[in-house]
Amino acid sequence: MAEAHQAVAFQFTVTPDGIDLHLCHEALRQVYLSGLHSWKKRFIRFKNGVMTGVYPGSPSGLLVVLVGYMSTTKYAKIDPSLGMFTKLSKHLPISKYVTEEGQRIVGGVLIGTGLWIAVTFVMRNVLKYLLSWHGWMFNRHGSLSLKTKIWLVLVKVFSGPKPMLYSFQNSIPRLPVPPIKDTVRSYLESARPLMDDEQYKRMEGLAKDFEKNLGPKLQWYLKLKSWWASNYVSDWWEEYIYLRGRGPIMVNSNYYAMDFLYVIPTTRQAARAGNSIHAIMMYRRKLDRAQIKPLMVLNTIPMCSSQYERMFNTSRVPGVETDVLQHMNESKHIAVYHKGRFFKVWLFYDGRLLLPREIEQQIERILADKSEPHPGEELLAALTAGDRDPWAKARSQFFSRGKNKQSLDSVEKAAFFVTLDDTEQRYDPENSVQSLDSYGKSLLHGKCYDRWFDKSFNLIVFKNGTMGLNAEHSWADAPVVGHLWEHVLSSDPVRLGYTEDGHCKGNPHPNLPGPQRLQWDIPEEGQAVINSSLKVAKALADDVDMHIIPFNDFGKGLIKKCKTSPDGFIQIALQLAHFRDKGKFCLTYEASMTRLFREGRTETVRSCTTQTCDFVRAMMNDKKLKLLKVAAEKHQDLYRLAMTGKGIDRHLFCLYLVSKYLGEDSAFLKEVLSEPWRLSTSQTPLQQVDLFDLKRHPEYVTSGGGFGPVADDGYGVSYIILGEDLINFHISSKHSSPETVGSLSVGHSQRHTTLLGILDVMSL
């Protein structure tokens, strides 16, 4: 394959006539362009930092204030400092060199700047105060109260024009610590439908004892942390829920996102990779320049953008006790895996980002490479799929020096990871169930050694041009990765496009240096650790039972006619499906965002409520539309409470951590946190609706994404509501559990029937 150009900028040799110096002008040119690119990036970051730091004010606003202020004082002959600057200047050594007019100008500049700073400070704090009110969340769907309308107008008035991605970060309020009394009451309410009278009475006693005795002491420490830290939950959540986990992150933590459901824009693997990689890097450029518009609810209320910071150039590094997230400020290359070989591909040349056809050219070179993997190289990534401790020890022992360290650095410090998969995956209408199930499992775990599960995300491009993502969970939640993926899917076939023969538009580069093959020297002991990790990973992957169901009998349009929340409707349908299958209810987890608060991540909505159980029992005997509406409204209330910082599970989690730090045991907290989430659910929202015109192009509908089961004897359910008539479900469980074995494959048609059964309710 093609090799890189001369890597040094000059060479010299000593001759009898002296030193013979040979300059490589091309190398010097590339060094100059690389430095120029880096300085441009630093300047942009500095400028964005200034713009964000003074928001909702702006430098142009300062200029307007100064010009207006100075003009007024000049023609009105008014001293803006009311004589203060004149008195002060008498004590300055330079006062005799400054005229009275000059003193007036300097005074005007200082007073004008101070006025601008004061106005900016007031606007920012008023905006923070306004954003601390969440009463708008509790308006009935489709209608806004007068109070909410006035509030929205005030938010717009005190928000600056044209916000950048991080403009609102200083105005977003901190996550409040809920009162102990409210959390305990809400927990008991959620536990009631899952316990008999005796169990509930016992738990009620534990809860009341905790509320009265140990709870207030733990609460005091949490309030102290909430005053000091940006978010009292997020750092502990990241560390203890994700980074300290010692089991495999494949299946258990990582999640996936799918391609378009019905179309593949090109069947050329290299071309699809070329457009997608270019689109991802264009998104990174916008991210670096903070040009991405912050996510806004009702186009007015900003959500926290902090999770975007580690999307690129990030890798999870294993440790013996805890992992760490390694983030680079900049990375100019990607790591690519194909048929057991690792490659380093530079994405910049001549001081610019490679165009899609040039990236396709690099991918074609990799696909054409016939070299064999080094010993241990083909299965190397299995280390990232198995248990964390063996990977941490192997990394220290076998990858801490020499060529192994250099190659590992190339992978871990890459912008992201790309797998050129040698299998074909896509939705087949003639075999919809098996084709999508195979596709989903491939994205979730693949062969267990052909994805680098530690990278922030993997782009997976299959042999037939279908693609998808696999994302690591600790650095951010799915909506952030979904935002990137929506940009890629909307850019690929429409904005970038392909030629008639399926190639990326444009021409190959005649002098482009080729990809660099990474070198490995893995000893037999290291290969043994790799094989051991692969064995663990394959057992986990083979145990996953997954089904993906495109449900198009009805969708959001019909559900809204019932004046019911689509999300609440689906959650209740899942409860009904579970009860029909198991004959009992279970603790149910639904993820909700808390990004209305600074550095917010998620909160739990406990979807199995008394109202939902009442409806399900009624459905088993009769159809009850009223109970459906009551249950759906209760679910929406819980969702709103979770989003506005009044959820219970993150609070209980933090109280438990404080008790451990203090060496205090709480029977109540211990029992609550040991309860298994046998039904774990999450909606994948379509955030940038304006990028997809599903009415004109219904074929460009995405499949959404999914994740593995949280409990060994439970289900993982992800769903995405698309347009008016489509809901895609991703359901996972484990073959090894007698509770779930066979229930997905055997009961596939029954799940359609369960959802369709809700339609009978709407006919009342």
From TrEMBL:
Residues 175-740 form the Choline/carnitine acyltransferase domain. Coiled coil: none annotated. It is an enzyme of class 2 (transferase). Its EC number is 2.3.1.21. Its main location: mitochondrion. The chain crosses the membrane at residues 50-70, 105-127. SUPFAM superfamilies: CoA-dependent acyltransferases (SSF52777). GO terms for biological process: carnitine metabolic process; fatty acid beta-oxidation. Residues 1-47 form the Carnitine O-palmitoyltransferase N-terminal domain. GO terms for cellular component: mitochondrial outer membrane. GO terms for molecular function: carnitine O-palmitoyltransferase activity. It catalyses: (R)-carnitine + hexadecanoyl-CoA = O-hexadecanoyl-(R)-carnitine + CoA. The keyword Ligase does not apply. This is carnitine O-palmitoyltransferase. It comes from Sinocyclocheilus grahami. The gene is cpt1ab.
